[in-house]
Structures
1.
Amino acid sequence: MSSVKNVINDSYKLMLLKDYLREAIKEAGFSEVDIQKTPTGTRVGLHVTRPGIVIGRKGSGIRDLTKVLEKDFDLKNPQISVIEIIRPELQPSVMCNRMSQHLARGTAFRRAVMWTMQTIMNAGAMGVQITTSGKLRGDRSSFEKHSKGILPRAGHFADVIVSEDIVHVQTKMGLIGVRIRIAIKERYIPEFELKAMKKEAVIAKPPVIEEKEIEEKEIAEIAEIPADPTKPRTESELIEIEEKLVEQVETFEEIEEELK
């Protein structure tokens, strides 16, 4: 098999793996997966918001997931590491999954868009753009774009600080696509910087830590930690709590009616 076919085959398998993990560990807030081939096997890094759900009791979730990856996806000796996302509101894939769950539950798409944009901006994003397309309001397909803050559209600056993700959700009206683009200013590293300004920046703004890798020795400890009853344990519980808050969000149409 040629190198081109190998690349296409690996990309196709990675796409199938992402689709499987997006559904299998949806309650854990799955964001993305990293695969690295090593001489001893395959290292699989799972980026999630709730690592305890993936790990399971006494590591049972990790063991079951390892068997699936080895049998169904032909990964040789998969070694799974769980990476916790500290600020999930700045991850487009996580926010796409949350917004899709709101739409699947019957929430009006504009209320879901306004709530998602507000949540992302409150987390410290520089800008956000949400595009919804499909059967939004009637039989005819349409699309809407909503933006907030500053979001570079092109150039190297946009490639560095802007990340995006796309998800599709089936509703009663039909299929709806959601695309979220988030700009994070902390990712940009200036090419030139004065030494005095650099020292002040280090003192004023410590480095932002968005992810934390959980080592094997911590897996058992996390699995045995009792859950906090005041916090949602899964993504579904979080969506149920947010539903009441989403209903209170004002849409552009309501604001226009008040101004008339």
2.
Amino acid sequence: MDFALTDEQTAVRDLAASVLGDHCTPEALRAAEVGDSPGFDRALWAKLAEAGLLGVCIPEEHGGLGLGLVELALLLEEAGRTAAPVPLLGGLGLGALAVVRHGSAAQQAALLPGVASGELLVTAALVEPLGDEANPAATARQDGQSWVLDGTKICVPAGLFADRILVSATTPTGAGLFLVDPAAAGVTREQQDTIAWTPEALLVLDGVVAAPVGALDGSTLADVLQVGRAAVCAVLSGAAEAATRLTGEYTRTREQFGKPIAMFQAVGQRAADCFIDSRTIRLTMLLAVWRLANGLPAEKEVAVAKFYASDAGQRVVRAAAHLHGGMGVSREYPLHRYYVLVKQLELTLGGGTRSLVQLGRLLAQEPVSA
């Protein structure tokens, strides 16, 4: 593949970097943590909508830019790089993009214009408390012409603020996605405290009537999970790169024995390892995203990208904290946000071990050449 960006992709990246970089100052990030909607900076969300960035993957006929997954990944990468307190991963990478790829014409017309304008937030409840996201514990049964959902979903990104939630559930014919109105009868959502400082929710479904999205044979959910994992890797790529850059700046200015600690061999070697890891995360992520965007088989590439993002991402933030010394454990210092974000994303939709297991299974299924 060609890693060079097109003019459109460069424009999206630069615009995202400008909007997010200008807004996400340390003061604004602290204010977002204690505002009326903790972890969700609505002023920044409005700026992203005004710039057209919330419609980056929305078709033009629905008010979006009509671009694709690579452009969305570049936006998500900038969100990770700035630790932006907005639900771009849940609202676009998991929610809206699933509707774009699998929603009916009526569902797209009803939801996507509002997503692009910032007036409607669609997220997805895909995480499983135990087991594999491809086999949801929540169930869906048909009652006449309607589908009825029962079960519990955890760690729903922006679930407290979402206007619609895509819920994965198991049906008699396989796993599928269903569109749920959080205000519908039988839906209970409450705040779920996790390591994340971005909003998450616990969702309980008790006889909730919902509309199916896409096929109910497991294929739609499999695609959404693949795209979702690639989107997670994009955010993690930006966060790991930012932590590496922050560490480089700190070690160049922090002095011991009359010279910057970056001049000490052990410090330089560990910082170099951070750089290599962060670049590996980015390149494996871009390969997976590019294959998905072009409709190519990407199961192995997504598994490789998620493994490196989970495993190498942890190495980066741990080394960054270590090289910062006492500053590395300060909640007031910017590194803390990257550390928490990377830790949260490490296990989102499967950690490194599960990615390796999946990769091994895929390789074992390949025919042996003579």
3.
Amino acid sequence: MNRPLSRFATRAAYGASQLPRIAWYLGHGLAMTRIAQRAREDGSARPRPHTDARTPDRKRFFADMGALWRQDLANVEAGVYPLPADHDGSLKMLLDRSRLFFEDLPAVHRRRESGDHAEVLSEETRGNRPRYYLQNFHFQSGGWMTDESAQRYDTQVEVLFNGAANATRRQALPPLHDVFAGRDQRRLSLLDVGCGTGRFLDFVKQTWPRLPALGLDLSEAYVKEAKRHLQRWSRTDLMVGNAESIPLPDESQDAVTSIFMFHELPPEVRRIVLSEFARVLKPGGRLVLVDSLQHGDEPDYDGLLELFPQSFHEPYYLSYIKEDFAALCQDLGLTYIRNARAFVSKVIVFDKPARPAATATRAA
């Protein structure tokens, strides 16, 4: 029988797995910053990003990142989820993906300078996906449509988060633990919308390996990458589909999750997608969203939120940071439960009220 790790052993194992990741992606971030600075010195015509709002200094920024790691470790120690395996792949895979990331930076800089963000739109792709989706989000080559983009994505996002993207994703697990605890996971169902390369679903399956889970994404390339990443797990299905019309029956899911997706949806699409979430959730089901902080959540970060879409192509981000999700979901019959900060992101939790128990009819 496997004995649980001691507290010291758990912390040592956690540090041994996470500290090298942090160093790896911080190093990538420093290199990316120097490359960008050199490009600006070589004659950038684009105005530098600017904000008059407050931004966190480096001490505050790294202190808040440290708070995320402490919370992640606390969740492990509390038994909310096991010691995480990031499944980053072999050293060769890491190096190959690092190469893909750095090779794309000149093209990213070119698009940032020119403002070109519609290279994904072509006669071949037009009409096959919603128009808002066919853009070079983050100014990256291929948008969300190519195999190379899917292979590059996890490195890109971890660099953006200084190695904290996976730890941020894992903060969606505690709200699920609250409603899954004590229940037979085999009889539950979870839908992850905008599943991307399957990183969050991997952590779901590490926690509940027998839970039937479905990932939905608009990108065939990203679903292909998710299938590769999740091949170790059973009871996991992946589907190419549009969150505006989820191909599932009404009231079929015990939980719906969506990670880092809503800031990339136009306002009118957000409302349609949320209505679909409400439709497929069972009464008593739980919705968990993870996405960027919003304006006013942390006043010291408001300037950072304004700077972000100036450096990365995020056309719907400024409307996202002003969106009132509690009000939107209330109109759809979902009850706001809470939100919790996770570094530069937040976890927002909603429940679909259970139906009242049937009142027994007294015999005449």
4.
Amino acid sequence: MKAKFLILGAAAFLAIATGPTAANDRYGNRPPVMVSPDLSAPWVMQLRGNKQARQRQPQVRERQPQVRYRQQPVQYGQPGQVRVMAQPTLREVRRTYRQRPPSPFRTAGIPAPVRREVHPQINPMYLPQDVAYAGKEKAGTIVIDTTQNFLYLVKPGGEARRYGVGTGKPGFEWAGTHKITQKREWPDWRPPAEMIVRERAKGRVLPAHMEGGPANPLGARALYLGSTLYRIHGTNQPWTIGGAVSSGCIRMRNEDVVDLYERVGVGTKVVVM
């Protein structure tokens, strides 16, 4: 009986001594956590302690360079020669259209010349010539177009004799209808007081009176218009014909004003527009 109690006590002692150790061994060596391959959500990756997985990597797309496609058609020149020309881009085509000159198709009429202070050389368009005339003025009338720098002497039969002229510079333009009141050959020149003051401010001294002659600014002939200070006259500066250069007078080449002088008389109607 005594031996039975000793055996039970030894078993109890062994159970008490080995109990905590067995429990520690049970939880000390944990089996590995198996994650199913299809569980790829970020929260599952966080369970594994992967720091790189917790940081969201930005998606960077590599920008491909834009290559402009240019077709290169083949053009054939001389036999045995081949020339390749590049097709212009859309930008080049638009730039070409912006730089395109105005269309040559215009309404009937003479294109207006460029009005400028000095005409270095007479344009052939300003030389005398006969042109068609469909206006309302009667034959023998002088019509001066100050915007195109032409003087027309209306002739019978729908024609006119056209001359190139120099007209008033900016600030000295005018328009109106007058008659020729006087004709003079190689006229003398008496500059108006306003012109003398104006030119003096520019550093140019004008004489109070100048005798007629080749050096006179009025040239070989002068046709006086009404009671005004304006005249149709020649010039000692023929290269200025076709420009806006005068103080209001209509200047012509000496040979042209002589021709006009012989064709018209006192009382001729002059229309300046």
